[in-house]
């Protein structure tokens, strides 16, 4: 049971996640306000309403602009529900939560200026009267500010529920780009710079998405969907990232209980003509997205592809010898088959998870649905002056 003295670990309760997506065709709109009312009553009864705020994380497709941020408006069919939502949020002291992904804008449009997705300035700035926008985040954020203003809530606090950059699965998804984006974001937020329409007022909260990769996540939007983590599956930081809070840099997990250092690869003595069905089986169970265009293992050759798929399945099956048979096409090796940036991983022994893989003196974070919350500031940058 959640008690009042436990509330320090919880800041928000999300009522749904991106329920106003265009693809949902309005099917969830009628449930949002009643659900918020019921949950709010429960928080009041539990004396938690002053500690925990109800929010509705919205996708950035809830609002739009014909050309510049100052013309931002909510989609016509959402005007009424957004006005109601803003009123509820304002009365309870909760922020409007939005998920912003400049990566998706770049991924979905070949005409999107690449440098505009980052924070180092752009050769294609957006000029909006006296305001000039040099990055997509500021432009998107202020489009929402304008939309809120047009329904009478221009001063409503805004929190970023999800924002990040993937490291695999698309040409623009790589370690260099992910570090550049996330570090640029952190630097901007911690500088308290704000945006042209809210100068000196950064978002109330910002949650980086995400802590770890999700190897079973749907790849319908793209292969990158499984690779948003700033840590690899074994708790190792993928790249250097300074959180801007003293010495709060990412720490690698320690004492990780790895399985024995052995791998499953294609047997070089066997003809691989019969391998396609085995590849399909392996990749239907394990993650092979790094083999495709934009992945770190793209271009390692046919035998490399087979070996990577076999090993991914083998590690997922906790190195069960039978899982490396593949009708004699696989074999176990003690030599690391990794090639360049393509890492053939070794799994983690879940049976030894009680041995606690720690991240220095910090916890590694916990995940609630689509939100990754970290009480140790890993993914959570809270704006409190210089804090």
TrEMBL record:
InterPro entries in the record, alphabetically?
GH (IPR017853), Glyco_hydro_17 (IPR000490), Glyco_hydro_17_plant (IPR044965), X8 (IPR012946)
> What keywords sit in the KW lines?
Disulfide bond, Glycosidase, Hydrolase, Signal
Instruction: Specify the protein name.
Output: X8 domain-containing protein
Cite a single GO BP annotation: carbohydrate metabolic process
Q: Which domain of life is it from?
A: Eukaryota
Q: Which family does it belong to?
A: Belongs to the glycosyl hydrolase 17 family.
Query: Pfam families from the entry?
Result: Glyco_hydro_17, X8
Q: Please report the stretch or stretches of sequence annotated as the X8 domain.
A: 262-344
Q: Name one GO molecular function term.
A: hydrolase activity, hydrolyzing O-glycosyl compounds
Record-linked SUPFAM superfamilies: (Trans)glycosidases
């Amino acid at each position: 049971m959640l008690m009042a003295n436990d509330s320090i670990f919880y800041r928000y309760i999300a009522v749904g996640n991106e329920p106003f997506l265009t693809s949902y065709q309005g099917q969830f709109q009628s449930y949002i306000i009643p659900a918020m009312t019921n949950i709010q009553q429960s928080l009041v009864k539990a004396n938690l309403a002053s500690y925990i705020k109800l929010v509705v994380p919205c996708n950035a497709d809830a609002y739009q602009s014909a050309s510049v941020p100052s013309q931002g408006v909510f989609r016509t069919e959402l005007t009424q529900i957004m006005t109601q939502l803003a009123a509820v949020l304002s009365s309870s002291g909760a922020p409007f939560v939005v998920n912003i992904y400049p990566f998706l804008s770049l991924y979905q449009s070949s005409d999107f200026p690449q440098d505009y997705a980052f924070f180092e300035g752009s050769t294609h700035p957006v000029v909006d009267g006296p305001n000039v926008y040099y990055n997509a985040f500021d432009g998107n954020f202020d489009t929402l500010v304008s939309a809120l203003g047009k329904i009478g809530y221009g001063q409503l606090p805004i929190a970023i529920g999800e924002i990040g950059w993937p490291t695999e699965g698309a040409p623009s998804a790589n370690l260099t780009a992910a570090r550049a984006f996330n570090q640029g974001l952190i630097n901007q937020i911690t500088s308290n710079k704000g945006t042209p329409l809210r100068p000196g007022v950064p978002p109330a909260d910002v949650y980086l998405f995400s802590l770890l990769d999700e190897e079973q996540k749907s790849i319908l939007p793209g292969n990158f969907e499984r690779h948003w983590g700033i840590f690899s599956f074994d708790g190792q930081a993928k790249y250097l990232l300074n959180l801007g809070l003293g010495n709060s840099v990412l720490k690698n997990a320690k004492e990780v209980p790895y399985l024995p250092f052995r791998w499953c690869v294609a047997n070089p003595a066997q003809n691989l003509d019969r391998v396609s069905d085995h590849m399909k089986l392996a990749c239907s169970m394990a993650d092979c997205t790094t083999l495709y265009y934009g992945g770190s293992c793209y271009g390692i050759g046919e035998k490399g592809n087979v070996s990577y798929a076999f090993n991914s399945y083998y590690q997922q099956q906790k190195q069960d010898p039978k899982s490396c048979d593949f009708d004699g096409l696989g074999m176990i090796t003690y030599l690391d088959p990794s090639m360049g940036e393509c890492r053939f991983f070794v799994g983690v022994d879940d049976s030894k998870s009680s041995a606690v893989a720690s991240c220095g003196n910090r916890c590694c974070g916990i995940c609630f649905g689509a939100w990754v919350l970290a009480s140790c500031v890993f993914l959570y940058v809270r704006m409190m002056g210089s804090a």
